[in-house]
Specification:
Chain lengths: 430, 104
């Protein structure tokens, strides 16, 4: 080495760069300081997390986030906008910090098609993005027509409000316009669907609004299943906070809605019973977001199978799928789960691009629901990867105690606010 | 000149090792994986912006002791008692060390 002159050393480096470029190797030298290109489709809880974490773990990886919206409205806490004690701007987050602080290239466009063989994504705007690793976080789409008569147009009369934004505000306006004594109908799908406790929290939050402003009104929940998340806690909370206001009709009592008549604000159950509401909130059956289904990442169930240790698709190489679109064993379709999976996929991608080994992860899910602004309940679980997929750790986790005093419920309500502040800072913040 | 060359060589080695991003001492991949979920509630690098208790600046001993007490229902909690029960002693120690040494 001591015999090398400074000029020789420079030549040596240049020759290496030229060699790398000539054979088209994905070498660090050939691409300047780039170790790899990652494209992330979708800027929600999973996708925005993954994009930011990759950049935090390895600045030599280029990350491009494809998201059609300039900002993202979170489904978590949107029930409080419907209830009227949060404003929509308080649950809206933009991508400025991801772009300016973390160096994520944010492309405001829609992913149109994935070419797995060529490793590229075509965007609706005509551009093509090449990737070494792709992370697909498309969230959910609705199965329009699965309930007869319920399509996108019908959702303007009977909002789903299950993707937050204009639909959230539409449901809020309908509740504001409703006369005292009106019946609010909610229809809830069978599993799996986004945010398992969400419909029951929504019922409580609508009741919170009605109790103050329209106390003669009632809520009827028509459910396509016989049991639901945090059921005992919800039913206790409904009863203690809003006695007689909320009626839950399970599948076994003809709760499954199979048809809607939007112009009559009427829904029809499996056995043909008709219910007419003053406001009707239809939470329709769901499947993985379109780009995942169109690209062969979903199986016959409509959801995406993944390797639980990496969240790499079992149906495509170099493609990870995260969040609500996945089949993730015992992990629920929650914002927290998507955030955990986003971090895991980020680490898996960084490890792969650095040729480092990757071990099996553990996951946590912590999910709060508010019966009222000062009355919180939670479910928490630890998940492990086993031969049977992702399972909840035995003898751990579970829901809030059934018998707890008002101070405990108030404390969980405070933690729910802290949870949201931490999560959204972790995902979209500086 | 030899000294300059030696410096350059050292720089080149430094650049290469950064590019290969070997895990820092005390930061094993599995410990990193164990703590992926913690920052969800406790904030990026343990700097909680809201009502959640921050973990930033706490020693490994404090964190490990708290987790053991949560697990044994010896410390008042809302969710941490339920979560801590999902981890072994070795995992609790690894989580505590990881948070105390790498969350900056």
């Amino acid at each position: 080495m001591s015999t090398l002159s400074r000029r020789d050393f420079a030549k040596f480096i240049a020759a290496g760069a030229a060699a790398g470029a000539a054979i088209g190797a994905p070498s660090v030298w050939a691409q300047g300081r780039t170790r790899g290109r990652v494209v992330v489709i979708g800027g929600g809880w999973g996708g925005a997390t993954a994009a930011k974490k990759i950049r935090q773990m390895d600045r030599a990886i280029q990350v491009t986030l494809v998201e059609p919206s300039a900002s993202f409205v979170t489904c978590p806490f949107s029930n409080y906008v419907i209830a009227g004690w949060r404003q929509i701007n308080q649950i809206t987050h933009n991508y400025n910090a991801l772009a300016s602080r973390h160096g994520v290239t944010v492309v405001r466009d829609t992913a149109q098609a994935i070419d797995g063989a060529a490793k590229r994504v075509r965007l609706a705007g005509g551009r093509t993005l090449n990737y070494d690793k792709l992370i697909v976080a498309p969230g959910i789409d609705f199965r329009w027509g699965a309930i007869e008569g319920y399509d996108e147009r019908a959702s303007e009369k009977m909002p789903h409000a299950w993707k937050a934004g204009p639909q959230t505000l539409l449901l809020r306006r309908q509740l504001e316009a409703m006369a005292d004594g009106g019946l609010v109908i909610m229809t809830v799908p069978a599993n799996p669907f986004r945010c398992p406790p969400g419909p029951y929290e929504r019922a409580a939050q609508i009741a919170y609004y009605l109790k103050q402003r329209k106390p003669r009104s009632k809520i009827l929940i028509l459910d396509a299943k016989d049991a639901f998340s945090k059921q005992g806690l919800f039913q206790d909370g409904w009863q203690s906070q809003y006695p007689g206001m909320i009626e839950w009709v399970p599948l076994s009592r003809d709760g499954a809605v199979t048809k809607v008549m939007p112009n009559e604000l009427t829904v029809e159950t499996q056995l043909g019973e008709k219910h007419r509401g003053a406001v009707v909130n239809v939470i329709p059956p769901q499947f993985a977001g379109r780009i995942a289904r169109d690209s062969g990442l979903a199986n016959a169930s409509g959801w995406c199978p993944v390797n639980p240790a990496t969240f790499e698709s079992t149906q495509a190489q170099n493609v990870h799928v995260i969040g609500d679109a996945t089949i993730a064993g015992a992990m629920p379709k929650s914002g927290f789960a998507a955030n955990s999976q986003g971090k895991l996929a980020a680490l898996a991608v960084v490890n792969a691009l650095n040729a480092r080994p990757h071990a099996a992860p553990t996951f946590v899910n912590t999910c709060y629901s508010l019966i009222a602004p000062e009355y919180g309940i939670s479910v928490a679980d630890v998940f492990r990867v086993t031969d049977a997929g992702i399972v909840a750790a035995p003898n751990a986790g579970g829901v809030s105690p059934r018998q707890a005093d008002a101070a405990f419920r108030r404390s969980e309500a405070q933690y729910a606010l802290g949870w949201y502040a931490s999560m959204t800072q972790d995902i979209w913040g500086a | 000149m030899p000294r300059l060359l030696a410096t350059m060589a050292a720089c080149a080695i430094a650049v290469i090792s950064v590019l290969h991003a070997a895990p820092a001492p005390g930061q094993t991949a599995s410990a990193q994986l164990l703590t992926l979920s913690c920052s969800g509630c406790h904030g990026a690098n343990g700097r909680s912006p809201g009502q959640m208790p921050p973990l930033y600046g706490r020693s490994a001993e404090m964190i490990a002791q708290a987790l053991r007490e949560f697990r044994a229902d010896q410390r008042a909690a809302t969710v941490m008692n339920r979560i801590a029960k999902g981890y072994t002693d070795a995992e609790i120690d690894a989580v505590a060390r990881e948070i105390a040494t790498t969350w900056r």
